[in-house]
Design goal:
- It is elongated, with a radius of gyration of 15 Å.
- The protein is an alpha+beta fold and 102 residues long.
- It has one domain.
- 28% of the residues lie in helices and 43% in strands.
- The two termini are 13 Å apart.
- It has helices spanning 71-78, 81-101, and strands spanning 3-5, 12-19, 22-33, 44-55, 60-68.
Length: 102
């Protein structure tokens, strides 16, 4: 089991398995969200933890589980396909960086 912590974006990546070139991992991303009833202009920190399988044969990602620390973050991410595509790209970039380092 290898562990890779990246400061960029508050992300940590934990490699759980690598069987048949399929990689199962977790990535935790930090987000700042604004809450309408909150007078704090800085926003609130929220996290999303994605457990996924990456299939290099077709460069696809299948999400097994996603946990959110705030329900607003869940609605913002899941209702916006662009954000999900950006998360997919970010995970692919992390996997590439991990491959280059090893």
């Amino acid at each position: 089991m290898s562990v890779l912590f990246l400061v960029d974006g508050g992300l940590s990546l934990l490699k759980l398995s690598d069987r048949n070139n399929i990689i199962q991992s977790q990535a935790t991303l930090d987000f700042k969200i604004r809450i309408e009833d909150n007078n704090d202009n800085q926003g609130r920190l929220a996290k999303a933890t994605f457990t996924y399988k990456y299939f290099p044969s077709d460069d696809s990602i299948k999400y097994i589980d996603v946990k959110y620390t705030h329900p607003k973050l869940q609605s913002v991410i899941e209702c916006n396909p662009t954000i999900m595509k950006n998360i997919d790209s970010y995970i692919r970039d992390l996997l590439l960086a991990q491959k280059i380092r090893s």
